[in-house]
Amino acid sequence: MNSAVQLVVKPGTLPSNAEALCKASRGLLMKLLEYDPKLRLRSLRQLQQTAFYLGYNFEQIKKKKVNFSKAHRGPITKRK
């Protein structure tokens, strides 16, 4: 017996449990999982411009001068 769980999700949507994520997290996932490769995130610059990464100093990250435990501004899930 196969115990794997199979999610059925329409193209262009996320599973219902993704509602627990904050809006910026869901937006990033939607852009990364875009079905049309012409619309999908394809570069570091596009990634840096997403709401999820606004406020990150990528120059400091490239120089490895960022403590990642302090770099993230907050939870990726919605506040209750």
Topology (elements, then pairings):
Layout: H1 23-32, H2 44-48, H3 58-62, H4 68-71
Organism: Leptidea sinapis
Protein name: Protein kinase domain-containing protein
What does this entry look like structurally?
- With 80 residues, this protein is mainly α.
- The protein has a domain at 43-73.
- Helices cover 30% and strands 0% of the residues.
- The chain is built from 4 helices and no strands.
- It has helices at 23-32, 44-48, 58-62, 68-71.
- The longest helix is centred in the middle third of the chain and has 10 residues, at 23-32.
- It starts with 22 loop residues before the first helix and ends in a 9-residue tail after the last helix.
Using DSSP, what is the number of strands?
0
Radius of gyration (Å): 16 Å
What's the overall geometry? extended
Q: Quaternary state, please?
A: single chain
**Helical segment tally?**
4
**Element order, helices and strands?**
HHHH
Low-confidence stretches: none
What percent of residues adopt helix (DSSP H or I)?
Answer: 25-40%
The span between the termini is 38 Å
Beta content comes to under 5%
Q: Name the structural class.
A: mainly alpha
Organism: Leptidea sinapis
Protein name: Protein kinase domain-containing protein
Summarize the structure.
It comes from Leptidea sinapis. With 80 residues, the chain is mostly helical. It contains 4 helices and no strands.
